Amino acid sequence: MKKTELPRWATGFVLPILNLLSALIVAGVVIHLLGESPLDSLRILIESAILDPEGLGYTLFYASTFIFAGLAVSIAMQAGLFNIGAEGQMYVGGLGLTLAVLAFDASLPGWLLIPMAMVGAALFGALWSFIPGYLQARRGSHVVVTTIMFNFIAASLMNYAILKLIPEGQQNPASRVFADSAALPLLNKVLPVFGDTPLNISLLLAIAALVIYGIAVWRSSWGYKLRATGLNPHAAHYAGVKISRTIVVTMLVSGALAGLGAVNSVMGSTHYLSLNFPAGAGFVGIAIALMGRQHPVGIFLSSVLFGALIQGGFDLSLEKPNIPQETFVFIQGLIILFCGAMENFYAPAIMKLLNLTRTSTTKEA
Q1: Which of 8, 16, 42 has the alpha carbon at shortest distance from 27?
Q2: Does the residue 332 lie in any domain?
Q3: What is the mean pLDDT of residues 213-238?
């Protein structure tokens, strides 16, 4: 009897690997057309982003932000929602964080100020996602459309807000520099092997968020309702799940996670709020959620991969002037293409191979 569904190991591991390899092969062809060796470029990228300890520190620094962005998109996907607004939610989360720090960094110690700022980031991110969630739940307005529009609104809001936060006499469109008490502790103080990098405790917070996400989604009654809503909202409704409430709560949690993504760069690196600080991290979260199959381990590995692409891509563009840094934005797009729109491209071939193997085994028996 032929199977019609792929086993979990195939959908969770084999397909993402094949999709990633396909994206890298296409990227290799582009690099070849630019006049450079794809294998040599790959060697430089791996050495710079993974094998070099300081480069690995930068890779993990970028990954810390990407984990929160990936979680924000993933938890919404579990409920059947496609939150494309993580970029705007992270942006507004950075504003909430900054307002808390600027108000209290002169009077509160770091052990109290830092958690307060994180709460501000999560709260502002959640509030920014509330209206799209409410409109989806109560008015049927598609969350894809509303979250995209809220990204534009967030950009305009931040342009206005930062103008109000610029210190007198300063030309740079940014807030004042935070007090030292608002700086996140760096991990190189404990692990000097990472060198002079901005890698900070956000990585540990991101890993903790992955664990909590896994437990909440697969080991709690709320997670069961969440997944039931995503799989079949009509059946979930007849089973007693309050769909509207689930959608709103899920979007609040998604926005809070996106808002926490601002903590790493604002409090761990720049120590002030600047224009466009997310730098597309919210959109990268979409690729991470798709490639990681909304699983904690997959999200972590995908985040490290994209962090490596940024860190390795920067060094590669320095060593290979023919390869502009924008090439790695193109590679990110390829990964989204193969892991998103074409995620099941190899599924029929794998299914056919499995059925052939099963038939051969049955005949031998």
Answers
A1: 42
A2: no
A3: 93
